[in-house]
Amino acid sequence: MNQKYCFKSYFSQQCTQFWDNTKIDKTQKYTMEDLYYIQTPLETMPCNLRMNKKNLIMEQDDRQYSTNVENAGLELITSDFNNDQGVRITKGNYTFEFFGKIKSIFDQLKKTSIQFNFTQRYTIKKMIAKGTFATIYLAECKFTQNEYAVKCFEKRQISNEKDKKNLIKEMQILRLMNHNQLLTIYEVFENSSYIYFIQELLKGGDLHEYLERSEKLSEVKVSQIIYNLLNGVQYMHSQGVLHRDIKPENLILRQKNNLNDIVIGDFGLADIYKYDGNYLYRRCGTPGYVAPEILRGQPYDYKVDIYSIGVLLYILLSGRRPFVGKNNQQTIKLNEMGDINYDDIECSSEAMSLMKKMLESQPENRISILSAKQHPFITNNVQKRESQKSKNTLKLDMKCIAQQECVSVSPILTSRPINRHSLMNNFTIHTPRQLPRLSHDVKAIAKTESNDVHRTTISRQSMSRANLRLNNQFTNLQVFL
What we know:
By secondary structure, the protein is of the alpha+beta class. The protein has three domains: 2-113, Pleckstrin-homology domain (PH domain)/Phosphotyrosine-binding domain (PTB) (PH-domain like); 118-201, Phosphorylase Kinase, domain 1; 207-380 and 472-480, Transferase(Phosphotransferase), domain 1 (Orthogonal Bundle), CATH 1.10.510.10. It has helices at 103-109, 118-121, 161-176, 207-213, 219-238, 292-295, 303-318, 328-337, 349-358, 369-373, 376-408, 420-425, 443-452; strands at 2-5, 32-39, 44-52, 55-60, 63-68, 73-78, 85-91, 94-99, 114-115, 122-130, 134-141, 147-154, 185-190, 194-199, 241-242, 251-253, 262-264, 271-272, 283-285, 453-456, 467-470, 473-476, 478-480. β21 (467-470) and β22 (473-476) form a beta hairpin. The longest helix has 33 residues, at 376-408. It is elongated.
């Protein structure tokens, strides 16, 4: 029996037909292509299907059809005639079903479409964090036992059209991200009460937590953090996206204590760059981290993220924030003025130079990402990191050789010389993965989904936390309307 989900999707599309009357560019590259078949009570018809980003293209009888499947409904189904596995795509009141070897095309479709069977696919294990609009859970896939972070939005909390548009925008932006330093989203599910983002599980905690319990970082380590963030932001900007909320709490360590692998998360305030400045939220960010031009109501571009990284660099080098007021309003005022005290910061001249260039109050004078990556503070420390890495590798290899000599080699048993090169080539380091110690009653979620399902025979074609504490001061995440 196939399941038909009886609720109106948040992403339901108004359309007068399933296939678009658009001209197909025959020179475009496809992410996949294969032969499938369409089934009706009277006949079975072959069709060739291709995927190109968000478009599904069908070739049949020397004709081509195209449709945009972004946020279309996506379901796995079974043929009523021969039990073959198939796919159902829903757009508005229209559906399209096809059958065959569907794994590869389904994997492509789920990156851009909306599925409805979350509780059949995943088990929620524990709650990780709770925000205003969303709760983050640790979940396990029932089929692979892989763990994921699930960002769960309760629909009744998204009460107005602006919040709904912001959620859709966040999902759209996350789907564009494909970089090691940026959060990965795998698929999206929906039922009558919840929307679920299936995301990469980052196990190391956020940078703010790390800084609170650690000693001051060396400039070599600081430069590595900044360099990696610049790489991630450079890719983000190449996709036309501004983050607008880069801060320690939104920078997540992929593994515990590994500062070399930090991921930029929480794209709730991100937006696609618009030349006319017509953003859903125009004046937004976290007080103390926002580029001054945003607070001044001036036009802004990608350099707002450079400023936020500059604030982070200031914190990493000084151990304090550049803008600390008695309350949010005073912090915002100081942030808007952009006057920063660089006194008593013990750092190299190269570090001071880059920090000041990134924290230029006027965006036209602010350093670009490319120039920042080529700044001596970054390039000189890259050389130091590579040199230190080589020394550490040599020390580790020699230690291994010594252990091998003590344990495995006895002059009484052998007189042959030791092959040090062979020992070094066979040496491997195994690092155990860190797992989080993360409980939550999920009966309500499971009950909601079961109530959404109406079984029928088909025989027709058819957050993040918002507080930051440094020097006993608190700053709340705010959206300035």
